Amino acid sequence: MDDLFDVIICGAGVHGLSTAKFLAEKQKTVLLVEQFPIPHSRGSSHGHSRIIRFSYTTSQHSQLMRESFRNWLKLEEESGTKLFENCGLLNIGGGRVLTQVSSGLRSLGQEGQSLSASEINTKFPGLKTQKYDGLYEKTAGLLMADKCILALKDSALKLGVVMKECEKVTDIVPVNASRVEVHTNKGKYRSKSLILTCGPWINKVLQPLKLKLPVSPLLIRVTYWKAKDPELYKAKRFPSVIINEKVHIYSTPILEYPGLMKICYHSGTEIDPDQRDKKLSNKDQTTADTQWQTLVTAIKEYYPYIEPVPSVTESCIYSVTPDQDYILDRHPVYSNIIIGAGFSGHGFKCSPEIGRILGDMAIGNPTAYALGSFSLSRFNSSNL
Fold this sequence. Notes:
It contains 8 helices and 20 strands. It is α+β, with helices and mostly antiparallel strands. Strands 5, 6, 7, 13, 14, 15, 16, 17 and 18 form a 9-stranded mixed beta sheet that branches. The mean pLDDT is 94.
């Protein structure tokens, strides 16, 4: 335990890697600790693709996307690997949602194309909608998630980040306002500041620090469905789609598995991340079955040329807060311990700017964004 790092980061998913890269670019010494190999498929950052878009209903997320989008394209150029597929995005929903999304786009100098239900059906014959209109965002698309993780890892290593893979954090010992120790199953490390980006394990890692966040790990089924006419759903002519009804359904065009399209229900059932393969309780199984039926019903209603029987089923874990928004804050007692958590299934695309925020907090720089909407204080203190 001789080396004193400027910052230790626990958790090497997309947010931990993005933060490490940002800090290394600032000439800081960084240690990144991950309990699994980097990359791995046990958390939230793996998989073939993630939707990336400017269109959010809230201004704070739209603002994060301005620089995040630019940084993803920069990483694509630096790595020489295609990370972005510009297939566009169609938001389908009620007028209030579409108005908010359109306003968010305009605030960033972007424009969306308003489409009536009949215009949607004509422009994208693989879709069928009668109840809702839509807003098409042509600059949106998909990030190749697995390739993004590898590109971030490679960039961070080249910048001098030290990585400890397959090391599980066993204890965190705050020493004072400028020292903290991290103990793992293989060693002990010291730093001036600590950043926790532990995904669904955040509350397990925080246990020694007497803090429990209102974050629920949800097991998400990622499902791929056979297209009766694959040409209708290829990325060159079909966008990603978000259906904003009472529930949230999303899809991405055929890009990952030949002839199969990803269509998913944007929620799941609560689990212990260390027992993700454990059989669900009767109550949770009932919830999962209801979600499944909702998804199948939506596929039959909106996707006329998709077989409503899945061909491939995978899984990931969301870490969800009560308001489905991020936690970017300091530990309420230990100011040099920074927390990035609760990304609620929509944090991957914003990770370059989330890494910047967490990094700036750790080294005492002012952040580029107002963080009130991401603070712990928005939750009832009795729940923490």
